[in-house]
Fold this sequence. Notes:
single chain, alpha/beta, eight-stranded mixed beta sheet, about 45% helix, about 15% strand, globular, binds adenosine-5'-diphosphate, binds magnesium ion
Amino acid sequence: MSRVIGILSGKGGVGKTTLVANLGAALTNDFKKNVIVVDSNIKTSHLGLHLGLYEDLPVTLKEVLNKKSSVNYATYIHPQTGIRLLPAPLNSKDVNFDQERFQNVINQLKRNYNIILVDIAPGLGRETIISSSIIDEGIIVTTPDLPAVTDALKTIDLLKRLRKDIAGIVVNRKKNEKYELTIEEITSNAECDLLAVIPEDKKIPESIAKGIPLVLMDKNSSASSAIKTLAGKLVNESYEPTGFVYSIKKLFGLEDNLNYQVSKKTFKKESNLEEKEDVEKLKEEVLREIKDELKYAVKKKLREKMEKR
Ligand code: ADP
Ligand code: MG
């Protein structure tokens, strides 16, 4: 059985693509899993760039969606890590991205891969809703600030409405500054489990520039350890960091707690409607409701919380 895991966020720029590239690398290299990373962020596709694929590729997800190529011709192997990648085109013009076609691509990938990680566009637009409709479970990424968390709540709401499992939330770029929202504030508002806390790491921009995921470039950094621990959790295997700093910290009982609890919340399908009809209905409903009512309710809830501090 293959698992299709979507990496999502409400706000852009919080670290989704970085997480997809690094989780893909960790699952492929450290856990020897049969994984492919897929870029479904058609309008602003960056996953190929994170993995050093700079040229405009002749065959991408676009050609597969447009039925000009089979999925095998659009799959690339990252030389340093062996990650399999299905990139999106750098130019989104003329891409026939609809749910049936994308589901078809994912079904083909399921024949060859056990884990399919999908880098999904941020926000609540058409691309996001289509991609969210084809995943089995979602991981929500946020940074520890009010705008990102506010928008993460909307993404969580979208997944709930689509009756998707939510594996949990990943808090990225934590600097331990006083002004940041605390982990407790984030999880209690999000009402889902905390999967990982990834610290701010200056080497991440360098790793992107080099096209080599951090988990390979700086294997024992705190951020790499957090990502590998998360990768282990996703496949029910443990990961024990090995770096010098971690060993010293462990000796003195100062190691970071990377093992946050994971317990999956399952949202059962309520109706027997054909999935496609169901999604069409939900699209309208979600967009209408989220746009007006939820936006204000969520902000109010967080503001109240901030005022109490
Ligand atoms: P998204 O895919 O959500 O838009 P990206 O993965 O492209 O976000 O990350 C946005 C920027 O944040 C990148 O330039 C990257 O260098 C930086 N970044 C992401 N995670 C971290 C981190 N843990 N520490 C430092 N910089 C980070
Ligand atoms: Mg991205």
